[in-house]
Amino acid sequence: MTITVRDYRPADAKAVSDLRRVALPSLVSTPQGVAWDVTTAPAAQELRMYIAELDGRIVGSARAQLLHDSSVPGQAAAAVQVHPDHRGRGAGGALLASAEEHLSAVGATHLFAWVSDTPDAHAFATRHGYRRSRPGRFLRLDLAGADLPPLPGALPSGVRLCTGADFDADPYPLFAADAEAATDEPGDVAADAMAYEDWLRHTWEHPDIDLDLTSVVTVGGEVAAFSLAVTDGLGRYVSGMTGTRRAFRGQGLARLAKTASLRRARDAGCTEAFTGNDSANAPMLALNTAFGYRPFAAEWRYVREPGRG
């Protein structure tokens, strides 16, 4: 039985989605989302997807891309997933080699990857020349049984609670809030060069984003806080991003936005909610813990500079 690696084909979307749900149960993955990411990828991203097959069955996939929304050139990411039943047979190494070859060819100087916090995963990353950087956490909430906080009976003067769908005519104010919040997130690579056109295609129009479950808080007509909802139609809800613009922080507006989003998600039939946070993001970790989220999985960011071993 030999592992073979090839380029992604459109017909692979469902198999890749199924694989990701098994390998990364804390993330949403749908066939339409996988297909969308590939077909709408901006040229600057240099996206390449690879498939690992064993006897004609897809057992792994890899996504390689430049982090084009960073102002620092040469930043890149490689994401490799292998089905748990087929690990230790060379699929991960073969996929990573293909991803690294592509990224080096398009000018990557730093290759980043998230690695599960397990001995085997750490050993794999170290063996391939990656060094450990910073930790992250996935949290899970039993949404069906959660004791969610109530929404206030009346909002302060000038404060309005909206859905993402309310911004369909002009989503730019939500983009501006997302871009500002993303710039302040802790991490190895700052998302400080996000383009509105890319955001429209890969956030606003993405098939996995649920605008009806997305919550937006405005103050005096200006977007102040938001909570993006990502769903898979199978009961799973993931927080795509929750943030508050700098001028409105410290007023509980992110909590209000997320409370409304989680409540609508439960009413819509979602049964479990996931979120991912950098371990240095103390405010969001505290907020999510207060909602009842509990640790689900841990991971570490690793990095390698090609040519430096």
Can you put this structure into words, describing what you see?
This protein has 309 residues and is α+β, with helices and mostly antiparallel strands. It folds into 2 domains: 3-108, 3-Layer(aba) Sandwich (Aminopeptidase), CATH 3.40.630; 141-297, Gcn5-related N-acetyltransferase (GNAT) (Aminopeptidase), CATH 3.40.630. It has 8 helices and 12 strands. The chain has helices at 13-23, 31-39, 91-105, 119-127, 172-183, 196-204, 253-267, 282-291; strands at residues 3-7, 48-54, 57-66, 75-82, 110-116, 131-142, 159-163, 215-219, 222-231, 236-244, 272-278, 294-304. The chain has a 12-stranded mixed β-sheet, with helices on both faces. A hairpin with a 4-residue loop joins strand 9 and strand 10 (236-244). Helix 1 (13-23) packs across helix 2 (31-39). The mean pLDDT is 95.
Helices and strands in order:
Elements: E1 3-7, H1 13-23, H2 31-39, E2 48-54, E3 57-66, E4 75-82, H3 91-105, E5 110-116, H4 119-127, E6 131-142, E7 159-163, H5 172-183, H6 196-204, E8 215-219, E9 222-231, E10 236-244, H7 253-267, E11 272-278, H8 282-291, E12 294-304
Parallel strand pairs: 4-5, 10-11
Antiparallel strand pairs: 1-2, 2-3, 3-4, 5-12, 6-11, 6-12, 7-8, 8-9, 9-10
Helix pairs in contact: 1-2
